[in-house]
Amino acid sequence: MTQLALVIDLNVCVGCHACVTSCKEWNTSGEAGFMSDDKPYDRDPTGTFFNRVQTFEVGEFPNTQTVHFPKSCLHCEDPPCVPVCPTGASYKRPEDGIVLVDYDKCIGCKYCSWACPYGVRELDEHQKVMKKCTLCVDRITDTKLPEAERKPACVLACPTSARLYGDIHDEESVVSKAIREAAGYTLMPEWGTQPANHYLPRRKTEMRIHEDELERADNPLKIDGRKPKPGLRDPSLDDVTSW
Amino acid sequence: MNPAFSVIFLTTLIGAGQGLVLGLFVVEARVAAELLAAPSAMLYVAGCGVALLLLAAGLLASFFHLGHPERAWRAAAMWRTSWLSREVIVLPAFMAAAAVYGWAHWQGVPGTLWIGGLAAALCLALFLCTAMIYACIRFLQEWATPLTLVNFTLIGCASGVLLLTALAAALDEPLVEAVGTWAMLLTAAALIGRTAALWRNARLKPRSTLQTAIGVKHPRIVQKAQGFMGGSFNTREFFHGRGPGTLRAVKWLFIVAGFVLPLLLLAGGLAVSSPLLLWLAVLLQFGGLTAERWFFFAQANHPQNLYYQAVS
Questions:
Q1: Structure ipTM
Q2: What 3-state DSSP class applies to A100?
Q3: Residues B5-307, CATH architecture
Q4: Where are the domains of chain B?
Q5: What is the per-residue pLDDT across B269-295, written as a single tens digit (0 to 9) for each?
Q6: List of chain A residues whose C-beta atoms are within 8 Å of the C-beta of residue B83
């Protein structure tokens, strides 16, 4: 079984919103139709977005960490938004685990958005159907694109490579390794939705210096400074000669 | 949640229509068991007619909730998994049964009790479907309780049977007293059920926190930006935008106007046998129960709101 997903490294995300804009650019230009915007340059702008970067401050000054937190559909393995849909417009693709909305079947009742604890589904105010991250399903399955570009737009746009993409059911994939080795976790595990998208935690980078590293282990006589230069044909010897 | 009037009117209006038909069936069953003097066929016909009007109005209101009402027929597809889909199937079936029930009484067709029984069964199924739409969302903790089902049923029955009492009084039927007593009992039971839900919800501890929402285990997390300066679907759909004072006021409003005053008016109306007081109780209760449903939606705190605490 395949379960495509994103793994987002919060230790690397700098909060530049490149994933937000590239997502909007790609998905508003696609076959599925535009993602509507209202008053984009006016006082109260609003619009449909599949992906947002939020910012949280953790801790108390001066010991604070700024956490930039990109949020899009998590493509849950047990998505609560799918069974509640009365028309079957909301579905999870069996072949790759992507949760999608059939815009031609959606009646715009908003029930699926109520049934998503993460708030990643948005009703498009003009097309009146529910929209959400498709994991750029039109990109990743497009065989006309070079293999390296068959990735979601946000992943390709991220300047710090904070977004990894792959199959979390393949234990050798880059995402599985990242989850395993960098303590990947899911959001709101208490509801049993089993999100496919994982996040990698902030990690404090610390220099670990052991005492014996402060002293040259290969200098038992504690002789520093230049040693006599050996003759051209003489052998050189550590701690006795210098070059 | 941000209460939508389409859904408020849908649930209150069909609840009253369901209670009315259920009341008629209980009347007929008790008449058949010779526990009650038989009313005229006109009561059944008028009752079913009024119930159908309420159900149709509720159904109409529900269409205003949809982005694509012309595709509403598709909503019957996923009845295996979706309570909303089940409601979409059971509501028209119940309306048809109620229409046949009224027609059978009008034409004097035999076997009305069986038709009424079918309508009553569909009526209970509809209460189940409507309430489970809300009760099945496990992370909306205010809704995810059997009390939701109990209260949708009791409140629907209370308002329907009160309407039946007023109808019986208007038609000068002899069973006003009996039906009125049921209405009083049901209204009191609904008040107890609703109070129990209020008591429960006031003591809820949210299972989701900012810590589980972003997966950072630190006691102090403050949102600094939600990612955009304007509004979005997330900021509009899931919060009513009013302060706790408004919520408190609406709570007392619905307790008084939806339950206590109708109960007093009902008791008074029965004591002095005044249809006017009964109709006043019906109108007041409808207003009160609209406020009750508004509060039901407004009180539900969606965990997605954790992600939208600060604009920037």
A1: 0.93
A2: strand
A3: Up-down Bundle (1.20)
A4: 5-307
A5: 999 989 999 999 999 999 999 999 999
A6: 84
